[in-house]
């Protein structure tokens, strides 16, 4: 008869990459390990993933590597593809690009046709925009250009209420 209970080989305080084991829970078929990442996040995973080095961080290591390599298309949590609505901050960023660079957008005559554009860094990456402008503070806030004749670029954009 096969053994149903797995052998616990991981203990609290042990380190695996950026993860430090906090607690170990054993059920009938697997050992679940709760870890604290160096970045401060909590990660739950199977003991096997740690032992065989399939997991070494909460996911922050992957994001850092992607950013360092210069790639833009990584998950930031604002564009929930297939899982419902996008965040208000993401929708504001998309709207800004649409009204300045899409001639079929209804607001294009008041923005893009007048020569107002979105700076290259923001247009290329939502993360760059987010780093400069930050999260949308509330549903009442909207993007505002400080100089209404200027472009959407760092130093000329803020969140403001009507």
Q: Indicate the overall shape.
A: elongated
Helix-residue proportion: 25-40%
Poorly predicted ranges: none
Mean pLDDT, to the nearest integer, reads: 85
Distance between the termini: 72 Å
The strand order across the widest sheet is: 1-2-3-4
Residue fraction in strands: 15-25%
Give me the count of strands.
6
Structural class: alpha+beta
Sheet with the most strands, sense and barrel status: 4 strands, antiparallel
- Overall radius of gyration: 23 Å
Q: Which labels suit this protein?
A:
single chain, 162 residues, alpha+beta, 2 domains, four-stranded antiparallel sheet, two-stranded antiparallel sheet, 26% helix, 19% strand
What would you say this structure looks like, in words?
The protein is an alpha+beta fold and 162 residues long. It folds into two domains: 15-69, no CATH class; 88-160, no CATH class. The chain is built from five helices and six strands; from the N terminus they run ββββαααααββ. It has helices at 47-51, 60-69, 88-101, 120-124, 126-133, and strands at 15-16, 19-26, 31-37, 42-46, 142-145, 157-160. The strands form two sheets. The chain has a four-stranded antiparallel sheet with strand order 1-2-3-4. Strands 5-6 form a two-stranded antiparallel ribbon. It is elongated. The protein starts with 14 loop residues before the first strand and ends with a strand. 13% of the residues are buried. The model has no long low-confidence stretch (mean pLDDT 85).
